[in-house]
Model the fold of this input.
Amino acid sequence: MHVLQVNRQLASAPAIVIGLAMALVGCQAPSASDVVGDYLESRPNARVLLSLRSDGTFTERVEVAGGATVAADGKWTYRERDGVVSLEGAIYPDHDALNPASETGKKLDGLWLLSAERGIRGIRLTDSPDLGFAFRKR
Done:
């Protein structure tokens, strides 16, 4: 009986190792070159498109359901050691899902900080973890 229990424990060891490896991959910040690209964030009443260019500039478009579109251009930086993307001159979309007009957002005077993560489904820039908003690289 004891031999059978030991064999079952050994048989589950590869699954544990694979699970731990997958968790570690999800915790890694992507490299600066990997962060460059086009992203999409879907919200209840809008789509936000973000293009991070290798020259340190970005373009953002907030497309509200019903037709309104607001755009902004600005500068971005990336701190690879902690995986933080900083957007200067961005439009910060409101989080009021009940008011479609509010989704056009406000142009920020300061920085909009996004957390960059590499996961199983690719790179994402987390906007609002409590509300589940994140940009997904396209």
In short: The first strand starts at residue 37 and ends at 42. Helices lie at 2-27, 32-35. Residues 93 and 105 are 4 Å apart (CA to CA). The two ends are 53 Å apart (CA to CA).
